[in-house]
Amino acid sequence: MSIPRLLARNVEEFGSAPAFREKDLGIWQVWTWAETAAEIEALALGFLTLGAQPGDTIAILGRNRPALYWAIVAAQRVGAIPVPLYQDSVAEEIAYVLDHCEARFVVAGDQEQVDKLIDVKEQLPKLEHIVYLDPRGLRKYDHTHVTAYAKLQDAGRTAQDDLLPELRRRTDGLGADDICVMLYTSGTTGKPKGVVLSNRNIIETAKNSVEFDKLSREEEVLAYLPMAWVGDFIFSIGQAMWCGFCVNCPESEDTMMSDLREIGPTYYFAPPRVFESQLTSVMIRMEDAGKFKKWLFDRFMAVAHRVGGSILDGAPVSLGDRLKYLMGDVLVYGPLKNTLGFSRVRVGYTAGEAIGPEIFDFYRSLGINLKQLYGQTEASVFITQQRDGEVRSDTVGTPTPGVELRIDENREVFYRSPGVFVRYFKNDESTKSTKDAEGWVATGDAGFIEQGTGHLRIIDRAKDVGAMADGSLFAPKFVENKLKFYPDILEAVVFGNGRNRCCAFINIDLTAVGNWAERNNIAYSSYQELSQHPKVLDTIAEHVAAVNDSIIGDEMLSGCRIHRFLVLHKELDADDGELTRTRKVRRRIIEDKFSDLITALYDGSERVSTVTEVTYEDGRKGAIKATLEIRDVIVSPEDRIAAQ
């Protein structure tokens, strides 16, 4: 079994059903499964005219578009290995991956991506040809080694009589153990690694996860997350091909929310940062709403928080509360879900990192069946999922069908499943250190399995879990997620391993705090100026104190209360190396880059001056200077009473 064979099955069984949609110039364009297969075949024949050989690497670079998903399957049909790249990667990051995977061909979305490739072409002796999808701005380029996507398809159709037998031979020869895709890790602690996944990995995982949630051909999904991310691949290729449901691509990043509302997906996935930003948007709108509307929202959200999750899970709820919730659904929850684009969501998932319990419960209280899953690129995504009726904010569920779990003596989580990756490309040492001879994979995460329920609880990344000076547990992500529940806080980084107290960096959310400043007639000229405004620092201090209150009774994690914090003068940025392309914090880089700020947090300084290198949008480097105020925080109710 292979992805191209699933495509052929879908054409035969329901060829006239929609397979892909894309919004272009405000109009949704639709391709059936039969039309999709024809487009893929023409492109695969085009690859053959360029001399593509089995085992070659074909990279895909651009935003979510049907034609780029087709390029993935076309590469598979010729026996090549597709390698999707992050579209927002800078040229140097792209060059590393293309050089490492030895790409001969790249299919690029538009002029911006082609320009990046041309900038690094001299560093890539094995890169022979660039194929571009959107021709705008590319007419006067040297087309010796650059070809339009449509022209390559035309060349394939012209050569069909000569090349189709060879294409069919290669496609028919694909098996379950042949490579399906190579996806690069985000590189949280070092250079990204190429994760090789077979057809068996992807198809078995897709089959098991589809059966788990009873997905069908009738589902609608929105493909908007990076194509280089394993989650998008399993949803938009693996599960879509297995089920035969329709994949919808938004017109652009700017229109994503309106396109989401128009499609009304039934099956939806987003990392926590998306749900966090949507909640921030809702709260900002409520702050700007009239008194009656705000009162109505607060009143019925109180009902939702009390009984919404129980109603969703089918738990007993009094008739009076059910009637109040029904009224709230008409007046508040229904319109809000429609605004968010979640009116039809039957199954929703979040993963990638832990989501704040308050954020998670907010969406479920609206009647949205949001669940958590735990996964990795090396697992073809799925390790654990939450069953309906067993959804909790503090666990990531039970093992997905076909997955085995175990916890070692250092609390690290290990798993074994049909989705376990084949190997790391050109990195046998890392492969052996991650996957043992029996197929058990080390996740790098610390956690434990609950007795009785079998639910897995993740504490933090194993390398980040440590101990305070007094021996109490240090788990920074737990506290950071609580802080990010507040709309004012975009990102947080907590320090404390081996120390006698915890301190934190905070990034404010410019949208939320800027809206607050506008409503309160507070003028500011930059992120840096707003971040250091006394009232902003007062508000952040209140949030940190509230988080301290929420964890003081947690026997395991009470030592992680924050004593001091500062608000950073810049947003943490992937272009500056502080975040991965999936917005995961690179702690070691941050600790090194901002070591002077960390020193100031712990030496009792009230202010600290610093100079930080930044990368501008055009790739130029610069530096910004700032003087930051450091705030002490109340860490216990006793301290609060004493302060009063």
UniProtKB/TrEMBL annotation:
Q: Does the keyword Ligase apply?
A: yes
**What are the GO cellular component annotations?**
membrane
Q: InterPro entries, per this entry?
A: AMP-binding_CS (IPR020845), AMP-dep_synth/lig_dom (IPR000873), ANL_N_sf (IPR042099)
> Where does the AMP-dependent synthetase/ligase domain start and stop, copy by copy?
8-414
Q: Does the keyword Metal-binding apply?
A: no
Q: Which keywords accompany this UniProt record?
A: Fatty acid metabolism, Ligase, Lipid metabolism
Q: Which GO terms describe its molecular function?
A: long-chain fatty acid-CoA ligase activity
Alphabetized PANTHER family for the sequence: AMP-DEPENDENT SYNTHETASE_LIGASE DOMAIN-CONTAINING PROTEIN, LONG-CHAIN-FATTY-ACID--COA LIGASE
Protein name from the UniProt record: Long-chain fatty acid--CoA ligase
**Organism name:** Meridianimarinicoccus aquatilis
